[in-house]
Amino acid sequence: MGVISFRKKYFSILSVVLLMFAAAWPILHASVVWAHSGGVLGPAWTSTPPTIDGIIDAGEWSSADTEAFTIATSYAGTLYVMNDDTNVYLALSITDDDWGTDLNTRDFVLIFFDNDHDGYGPELGDDAIGFITTGVTSPDLGFIYLIDQFWRPQSGFTWDALYDGTDDGEAAGTFNGTYNLFEISHPLNDVDDDHDFSLFFGDTVGFSMIYADNNEIVGRWPESSSQSGWNDLVIASPIPAPVPEFGVASSIIAAVALFSFTLATAILSKKKTRL
């Protein structure tokens, strides 16, 4: 009877644990994996960073994951993404009939990120990086073509350097007569935590981008203005290894299994002591 009682007690406790996990699974699954319903780019690891010069060289970007896109039917292009252990690298080619050179004709691309990958926002500190054809004057870097912004409730997306942040990364661009070509690098994890994302190997972050021609925003890709409809970017690891399909959820599964084993061991040990 003692063994039967022990088994009943153990399996009763285990059943409660598993039922609790089963109830939480849809929430974990939705928030961790399906925070965004768009496409997925990456992981794409590069051991040789590209030269950020605005020329999308096929050899330099051979390790990148790519995705064709269309904005407002008339602006078609290709996005390239990859990372090493320091930076994420993005490049894009997009059809355009000129290269804007003043405030009225300038072109720019801006890529927004859902830093915490929750499908909601924008939220304080969400990152945005991009390129502007006329360049801007940065308080800490001087004249640059890089756009490095963050979101704040009082003013929306605004420059990091205006609020005790720093402009982090590089950007360059060229025009080949048919396409505007942009290359951008941005640190995965820098010291400017209040204004930039902090990404590590295996992380996933949502993103969306807008394009402006002649200083007028012509559209967004993906079209959804809600973060839940954005794309995902997966940060690659330097050593290829099996990656669990559900990162955080897999850790919770392992924790539940460890808890169940520890509980069973403790109960069995207590039972043996009594005997």
Provide a descriptive summary of the structure in words:
This protein has two helices and 13 strands; from the N terminus they run H-E-E-E-E-E-E-E-E-E-E-E-E-E-H. Helix 1 (about 1-35) packs antiparallel against helix 2. It has a single domain, classed as Immunoglobulin-like, CATH 2.60.40. The radius of gyration is 24 Å and the shape is globular. It has helices at about 1-35, 245-275, and strands at about 40, 65-70, 75-85, 85-95, 110-115, 125-140, 140-150, 155-160, 170-175, 180-185, 205-215, 215-220, 230-235. The strands form two sheets. Strands 1, 5, 6, 7, 8, 11, 12 and 13 form an eight-stranded mixed sheet that branches. A five-stranded antiparallel sheet has the order 2-3-4-10-9, with no helix packed on it. The chain is α+β, with helices and mostly antiparallel strands. The longest helix is centred in the first third of the chain and has 32 residues, at about 1-35. Strand 2 (about 65-70) and strand 3 (about 75-85) form a beta hairpin.
Main attributes?
8-stranded mixed beta sheet; 2 helices; alpha+beta; Immunoglobulin-like; 275 residues; 5-stranded antiparallel beta sheet
